[in-house]
Amino acid sequence: MLWTAGLCLLWASSILGAPANKQRQKVLLISFDGFRWDYDRDVDTPNLDKMAKDGVKALYVTPPYLTVTSPSHFTLLTGRYIENHGVIHNMWFNTTTTEKKPYYQTQFVNEWWDNGTLPIWITAQRQGLKAGSLHFPGTASSYQGQVAMVREVEPLLYNYKNETAWRENADKVMGWFRDEGLDFVSLYFGEPDGTGHRHGPDSPQRREMVKQVDRTVGYIRHSAEQHGLTDRLNIIITSDHGMSTVYRKGLVEEITLFKIPGFSFSDVSFHLVDYGPSGMLLPKPGKLEKVYNALKGGHPHLHVYKKEEMPECLHFSKNDRILPIILWADAGYLINGYFPVQFNKGEHGFNNQEMDMKAFFRAVGPSFHKNLEVGPFETVNIYPLMCHILGIQPEVNDGHLNATRRMLVTSAATQAADVNSLPNVFTGLAAVAGFLVVVFIVMTSHKVLKNKRQRKRSGSSEPLPEKEMSKQTSL
Ligand SMILES: *[C@@H]1O[C@H](CO)[C@@H](O)[C@H](O)[C@H]1NC(C)=O
Ligand SMILES: *[C@@H]1O[C@H](CO)[C@@H](O)[C@H](O)[C@H]1NC(C)=O
Ligand SMILES: *[C@@H]1O[C@H](CO)[C@@H](O)[C@H](O)[C@H]1NC(C)=O
Ligand SMILES: *[C@@H]1O[C@H](CO)[C@@H](O)[C@H](O)[C@H]1NC(C)=O
Ligand SMILES: [Zn+2]
Description:
Blueprint: H1 2-15, E1 26-32, H2 46-54, E2 56-58, E3 61-62, H3 69-78, H4 82-85, E4 92-94, E5 99-101, H5 103-106, H6 110-113, H7 120-126, E6 131-134, E7 150-152, H8 163-179, E8 184-189, H9 193-199, H10 204-226, E9 233-238, E10 244-245, E11 255-256, E12 268-275, E13 278-283, H11 288-295, E14 302-306, E15 325-329, E16 335-336, E17 346-347, E18 361-364, E19 372-374, E20 377-378, H12 382-390, H13 410-420, H14 422-458, H15 466-474
Parallel strand pairs: 1-8, 1-9, 2-19, 3-20, 6-7, 6-8, 11-16
Antiparallel strand pairs: 2-18, 4-5, 9-18, 10-17, 12-13, 13-15, 14-15
Helix pairs in contact: 1-14, 2-10, 8-10, 13-14
This protein binds 2-acetamido-2-deoxy-beta-D-glucopyranose (4 copies) and zinc ion.
One 2-acetamido-2-deoxy-beta-D-glucopyranose (NAG) binds next to loops.
């Protein structure tokens, strides 16, 4: 009886976050760039399998459109669709000067990233937590003048495939959690994207790289253990997009805008093409209809949209940075300008409804259920999940905890109540106070009855045995 009451109280206090037995939960968000949802199906992945057994696995997750690296990673950090966070492309561009900056240089264009939406590092720090980031897209920029308090940006010519460096980075991040008291870290690995591009998603090279990812996942979990973090650290592993095999000339007719009858580059003042399967055009004044009508139906696998007519489910329309005409190609096709200049065997950037664009998702740690497989969800929902585990108030975002709540163990699923709303704390405290009163009454009457019985048996009134006393005081 007393024992049961004790357990109940322990449970009650853990829900309320009593400092005695609850430490703040930490979150490590890891992205393996371009890890398609099904990459573990044709490779032996003992460590990913073990992680699924010890935690949660989603069938797949749906990245935002445009399915490219920087925009999709910024969605992970903000929970906003791309049209809402403003990082609409891997490349910064200026339609007036026609200047463009490639992926790496764009990392350092502050105004591109800091467009009104705060990444989780800044939000966490503003609420008293400590955040860090290693190589995650967006790390180099500042946001309303603030940066992640511990951060590392890779140099220009970085070898994204080096497994030894991967391990060093994993250990470094664990050190940040343990020695610098960080609560949240985002960690980025540039593979298997690079290998998927170069050799294609069905290549033996891609399968080898997935084995390297798997070994690294094992290493990361081992390192967390070595650093004494397993009881506090939640590890979420996901990706920014998948990868699709590119069809080549001879097999299909490629999409080359220059060859489409009625279309002329002299009618556009700025274009962003030759960048995978997507493109954007800014027609010259008065030329929008002409350009649109020429391209629409110009190739059976080319989709042409006016910005404001984009399918709403893609959430890629309502932003000043998005150009008036948007092009995208069916899976397997690329959009070329004057002639093909893209030679990758694998590409991404396709419609996010294509199965090839779906990414993987795994999570393990004290906040997550074990051995649970869940259905698919959109990656905008990862942000509110992380905020919830960290106990911080999220910024306005496009995700919802509903999508992932099922993954959380009960205490974690209800934690937000005490962190995010004070009235709930008082309700909770009142409930526990009431509960304590009931327990006290029950225990006292129990004790009285027991003593009565004992007195009946032995004729004496002994005090409670030592063991029971100590259990009572430990409550
Ligand atoms: C683009 O360049 C023009 C001319 O230098 C400048 O006036 C404008 O502010 C730039 N726009 C952006 C978004 O950088
Ligand atoms: C976002 O960037 C656009 C230019 O690309 C600019 O006009 C706008 O003011 C920016 N918004 C914020 C909130 O920074
Ligand atoms: C891989 O990384 C390790 C550790 O940073 C470094 O010593 C080594 O030279 C790197 N190897 C290659 C091939 O880049
Ligand atoms: C979340 O789930 C609750 C309960 O099922 C429901 O009332 C609410 O509308 C859902 N919210 C969203 C945004 O899905
Ligand atoms: Zn990517």
